[in-house]
Amino acid sequence: xxxxxxxxxxxxxxxxxxxxxxxxxxxxxxxxxxxxxxxxxxxxxxxxxxxxxxxxxxxxxxxxxxxxxxxxxxxxxxxxxxxxxxxxxxxxxxxxxxxxxxxxxxxxxxxxxxxxxxxxxxxxxxxxxxxxxxxxxxxxxxxxxxxxxxxxxxxxxxxxxxxxxxxxxxxxxxxxxxxxxxxxxxxxxxxxxxxxxxxxxxxxxxxxxxxxxxxxxxxxxxxxxxxxxxxxxxxxxxxxxxxxxxxxxxxxxxxxxxxxxxxxxxxxxxxxxxxxxxxxxxxxxxxxxxxxxxxxxxxxxxxxxxxxxxxxxxxxxxxxxxxxxxxxxxxxxxxxxxxxxxxxxxxxxxxxxxxxxxxxxxxxxxxxxxxxxxx
Length: 375
What we know:
- By secondary structure, the protein is mainly alpha-helical.
- It has 18 helices and six strands.
- It has helices at about 10-20, 40-55, 65-70, 80-85, 90-105, 110-125, 130-135, 140-145, 155-165, 170-195, 200-220, 225-240, 255-260, 260-275, 280-290, 310-320, 340-350, 355-375, and strands at about 130, 150, 240-245, 245-250, 330-335, 340.
- It starts with 8 loop residues before the first helix and ends with a helix.
């Protein structure tokens, strides 16, 4: 992707196969570059819409055209983006820093500050308390439990369906929720990429961080006495265990994985805090534990925030640089009067949601017929 020399066709196949298989989401339309994944202007418009809508008790005419007139003032020098998209400090600290930066240039009432803080908490991966955001309504204690959701948990879609079915939010508020999810994805993507300019660079950086942390623990903290405990807890965090002297992959549902990780995270934190490591290394490792980045893995549900356009951008570079050595990579087809590369078209093709259900039903019926004939 970065050089013009000819690469082994097997390397190219593996790279393209990975991009197509894990191509990313389709939440963003059009083209997209990693440098503008998070748009501060869009967030300021959303915050302005929500705060003014709630302060007017839901009576405001909230057409899309009102976004600009309701937009909050942006802090200077990108302070808001820096606070929200940072990877240093706890999530709560980043929320407080973002709120402080925004309040310095906007005259927010106490109620508006509370709404903005609740939104920032959700955008940073903490609990999104919709009851604290949509304050123009009264909710019972049971309904408040329903309205507490997390963007970064595997049950988010189920929670959304539950909220919609309950009728607790009107159409306008459900639109706000969808837009908040879009902002969360953009911030999470920015945090995932960090200073990297591509997904590949980011994944290489996370691989290096994993290796550096594990080498530090192996070389300076692991002894014969604690070797078994360290290896066992490390295995839980990366998804494998030792069985009969052999390492075996363990598949755990994401929701269950969060529970399983608590013990090894607590074990690791205690071991690091009581160790003889330098304060710099201690602080760095503990921060990684708090951010769930002590041993980052390559294939993770967090990759769901990556838009397919970022993989497509990398794919274009590979095809451009390697196409002169392997001409078949440049094969194209015509669509709407335009020539489109076949591999790019495959990556960017979005299957309509109903097709999956139709195919499953068709396959199920065929299985019944085959099984009946077989019996």
